[in-house]
Design goal:
Keywords: Membrane, Transmembrane, Transmembrane helix
Strand content: under 5%
CATH class of the largest domain: Mainly Alpha
GO molecular function: transmembrane transporter activity
Number of helices: 15
Largest sheet: none
CATH topology of the largest domain: Growth Hormone, Chain: A
Main location: membrane
Number of domains: 2
Structural class: mainly alpha
CATH superfamily of the largest domain: MFS general substrate transporter like domains
Shape: globular
Membrane topology: Multi-pass membrane protein
Pfam families: MFS_1 (PF07690)
Radius of gyration: 21 Å
């Protein structure tokens, strides 16, 4: 077992956070409880901003361009923006703490929503895409909030803390899309297209998310844990940004635990996005109503977030790798159930629910394993790299899933997604055997 400031020692490399000056005992526990409350509040408030515009972004692009095929660009650009901004926000967290990194993410997203509103008022299409790219910062901040939950958590409670922040995303995901109607009412007096009204709510929600983090996330969990500090912003031995990123990648490559967590996290996300994004198309082609399609996606979202506290407890009690393996088994089961459903709707809905549960398992356990398997000197950069990889693979999965669906059908898409589970499963088993 190594100290928090030293590189991980193979094969486990799990951090202990015992470096001098780090909060300990009752003080640490009290700050951790406060940190979780603040992060959950920020996720709920700002998450409403994401949920409200995700359901209307594609409609707005279609309204401005008159092209249904371009409507999907909104989600793609938000995902791409999250991938591009994850590392800079992580670097900012390292230099100035979580308040700066997370808060800046919410502010950049608010600026992006303002750009969308101005462009929609002018009827200009290209600036809307720029705004969507900036809104990706909200996704990046959302993802990095889960790591902030583990900065001061005790080793046996890290997955549980992370899972609570993941769970809080449920509120925005469920309630946000229901703001489409009120958004249209707001849009009319402002001279905006109907779908643009929800972006007004997004601006308010993102600014409130920044305000919650900026004013209440004190003391800063990352700085209190002795991980990030302005005095060490240049990294070990005065390394620059590019050198730190290369060192972080080498650090992950040298740790079987970190590789296992990263691979499970990234590929699990790719599987989920690929299948989920094309399920509405498959159901519509088989005559499902919009209410059935909406219900299926709602059940999928419930599987992703609602059960995450139970997943976190399991990861703390049973171990990270067993829960990762469980999640991969659930993902394979989900693709088998949905892929063989044909025109039947209930197996697709059940498969999408299990797809969400499997994603929750690999995300909670994989993120926790990755975060605790790297030394403090590289942790923020590794977290940023993992989120970048996660979003890039998700974007690729969403982009190519339509082609696979068209060429090989929904069953072929699920079969291809199941194959993606194999590398992370093999790596997890290798990690178990190496430790033994």
């Amino acid at each position: 077992m190594t100290s928090a400031a030293s590189p991980p020692s193979p094969p486990s490399g799990i951090r202990t956070d015992t470096s001098p000056g780090v909060l300990a005992g009752p003080d640490r526990a009290a700050v951790q409880r406060r940190t979780l409350r603040v992060l959950i509040a920020a996720q709920i408030v700002a998450g409403l901003g994401m949920g409200s515009m995700l359901s209307s972004g594609g409609l707005l692009v279609e309204r401005l361009t008159g092209s249904q095929s371009l409507a999907g660009l909104s989600t793609t650009l938000i995902t791409l923006g999250a991938a591009l901004l994850a590392v800079p926000l992580a670097a900012l967290s390292r230099a100035r703490g979580r308040r700066a990194g997370l808060g800046t993410g919410w502010l950049v997203a608010a600026a992006g929503a303002v750009v969308v509103l101005i462009a929609a008022r002018l009827g200009a299409y290209p600036p809307v895409l720029l705004g969507m790219l900036l809104i990706g910062a909200a996704t990046a901040a959302n993802l990095q909030s889960r790591y902030a939950a583990t900065d001061l958590a005790e080793p046996g409670a890290r997955a549980g803390a992370l899972s609570l922040v993941v769970w809080s995303t449920t509120v925005g995901s469920v309630l946000g899309p229901n703001l489409s109607g009120p958004g249209e009412a707001v849009a009319r007096p402002l001279g905006l297209p109907g779908p643009a009204g929800t972006f007004v709510f997004s601006v308010v929600a993102f600014v409130l998310g920044w305000a919650v983090v900026h004013t209440l996330l004190r003391p800063d969990p990352l700085l209190s844990a002795g991980t990030g500090h302005a005095a060490h912003a240049a990294g070990p031995d005065g390394e620059g940004f590019a050198a730190r990123m290369r060192a972080a990648m080498r650090h992950v490559g040298a740790s079987p635990a970190a590789l296992t967590g990263l691979t499970a996290l990234v590929l699990g996300h790719g599987v989920m996005v690929a299948v989920m994004s094309m399920t509405p198309v498959h159901l519509a082609h088989h005559g499902a109503s919009l209410s059935i399609i909406g219900f299926t996606i709602s059940v999928h979202i419930a599987g992703m977030y609602a059960l995450s506290p139970l997943v976190g407890k399991a990861a703390d009690r049973l171990g990270r790798v067993p829960v990762i393996l469980l999640g991969q088994a659930v993902l394979v089961t989900a693709t088998l159930l949905a892929g063989t459903a044909g025109s039947r709707q209930w197996p697709v809905t059940a498969g999408l629910f299990l797809l969400g549960v499997g994603w929750s398992c690999v995300t909670v356990a994989g993120s926790t394993l990755l975060g605790e398997s790297v030394g403090a000197a590289h942790r923020p950069e590794v977290e940023g790299l993992s989120d970048t990889a996660m979003n890039l693979v998700g974007a690729a999965g969403g982009a190519f899933s339509g082609t696979v669906l068209g060429d090989y059908g929904y069953g072929g898409l699920n079969a291809a997604a199941a194959v993606l589970v194999a590398p992370s499963g093999a790596l997890a088993l290798y990690f178990v055997l190496r430790r033994r």
